[in-house]
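From the shared-data thread, chain only:
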Amino acid sequence: MKEYKSKGRLVFNIINYIIIIFMMLSCLVPLIHILALSFSGASYTDSNMVTLIPKGFTLAAYKYVMQNSMFWRAFGVTITRLAVGVPLGLLLTILAAYPLSKEEQYFPARKIYMWLFMFVMIFNAGLVPTYLLIKDLKMMDTIWALVLPMGVNVFNIVLMMNFFRGIPREIEESALVDGAKQHTILWKLYLPLAKPSIATITLFTFMGHWNSWMDGRIYMNSTSNYPLQTYLQNVLQSSDQVLLNSNNMQSIIERMAVSGQNLRAAQLFISMIPLLIIYPFLQKYFTAGLVMGSVKG
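Structure, as tokens:
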């Protein structure tokens, strides 16, 4: 069937394309600019002559970063944080969302827990009580100070709960007739059908841990325990002289080949690489409808 395209429809499509292209460029241009700065010579970056194309192409900034033990230590702290925090957050989200997705007859206290979750979603104790709690629990300067406070995200629980409630009731009823328990229904039936929701929540949890820098500054007394984003935030506030003296440079010539802007750009771009890799991998699950067709009439 041939689609009828009126003048209004054509104008609407053109406006949409313009908006999408503008949004794409607003995300892509800063990334290209940072990449160009990281590959440019120190004299060009200090003179603000670099826009979207590298000038005086050099790999000196990346060679410097490869020898920067503080950067890689912070990178390792963040990897550890992700390895612990993402599975923990996903597990707690699933265990909270599944019972909340049930009807009142199966979970009588559902409304109480829903009100409790919504209350803590809107209100929080504040920075000082949270800091005192972390301190009293002896979690300062440990990975748990970065992981446990972000372990339960009510927004993710609501997303997962709504997805579970969208799964046809007949699937669970047929499993109950066959003698399956609730934990079997959750792990064997619901989770395989919830891959799009799990992928979305995994990405949200990953981004939350990856982009968080304030907790590292608050709960870590030693700079050697900073996660990557806290380290980068500290780098962005440092002067060029501090950056150049932070590592052992082998010669004056190597110092002259690198500037503070080069180092910042190189470290920022390296920190973006995991996101550029993982986001397209999970993107395909967002619009997948795995529940469709699971119940035959």
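Residues 1 and 132 are 66 Å apart (CA to CA).
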